Amino acid sequence: MDYFLRSLTSISISTIVLAILLSSFCFFTSTEAYDPQDPNGNITIKWDVISWTPDGYVAVVTIYNFQKYRYISPPGWTLSWTWAKKEVIWSMMGGLAIEQGDCSKFKGAIPYSCKKTPTVVDLLPGTPYNQQIANCCKGGVISVRGLDPNNSISSFQLSVGIAGTTNKTVKLPKNFTLLAPGPGYTCGPAVVGKPTKFITPDGRRVTQAFIVFEEAHHMLMEIIVGKQFKLIIANSPYLASVVNGPGKNSFAPLVQCTKHMCPIRVHWHVKLNYKEYWRVKVTITNFNYRMNYSQWNLVVQHPNFDNLTQIFSFNYKPLTPYSSINDTAMLWGVKFYNDFLNQAGPLGNVQSELLFRKDKSTFTFEKGWAFPRRIYFNGDNCVMPPPDAYPYLPNAASRLRFSLLALWIAFV
Fold first, then answer.
1. What is the pTM (predicted TM-score) of this model?
2. Nearest to 153 by CA among 161, 162, 144
3. Are residues 291 and 340 in the same domain?
4. Are residues 210 and 232 in the same domain?
């Protein structure tokens, strides 16, 4: 059985609340389940029935991250669904149902979980091998497929009882919900897909699932453009967490006390202006005492990326969702060098420099042209400074030096 979890929709509750609180100070617009930088990105969940049991079946559930630059960070994913009939879970490998539920009606063998709507999380690294399956036990962290395909998949196995024992009698689970740090996800109805094929470790035999359910989930983004940038900062959910104190979750933000109270700051410094080139220094600073960002990425939209000549210290990959336009880049750290963004403190930053060739028909320093149009950090759409915050500078200087401290907030 193969389930595609359709229209994985990202809804940022904190962002929606913020828009209401600041409706008299901000303009905000909403796009519906569409990211222009990643129009085909989705998270797909497959539910493969691989064998039958006396009262049900064994299934392998696999989560695939097909998004270009959004990954599921610690503390990882949480998946839940509602059984169609009176199914129970007899056993699990590679995953953990967090509640057993009421199994009092059972005599003798007791199911692993009797919840009508079970909630499952990934097992942690270091889980004993006899409890693991392939692609499990990563603490729910799923990487970006384009950067780390081997870790862009997460799986668990479960034995389902009091269920049908044939293709015609098994009923699909419903009301799937995928939760992860940052914007939440809601799932559309599952559909029957093509059976997944499984290859044995020695590569000599291929088997396939009996039934496959599939769902693909797309992001819904709430974008806020601020007229009063300081007001957006002051009402940031991160500030509230500092004032009210951290919650029980060890991943609750605890932000270093600064004027901006942002967990992440991106500094885009226009450093040098040559005759045929111009040079930018990018610095990402972590102000969150509780979070180390490993395998971070930064997506930047700027029209001059079509003429990027050289980049130092970061990796670079163009994102071209529309083949005729090359204005968006994904940047990430070099492994074992600066791919790990430490928590707030002296080592809480990474930096690189970018060298661009000038297109004389479009290049200008006026009206903020030299600064990005849009920024994402780890897939979170960041708030840009208002237009009047950008400098108005002449084009004539041959070796002009200046900088702007630009702040973005990631509403997670």
1. 0.73
2. 144
3. yes
4. no
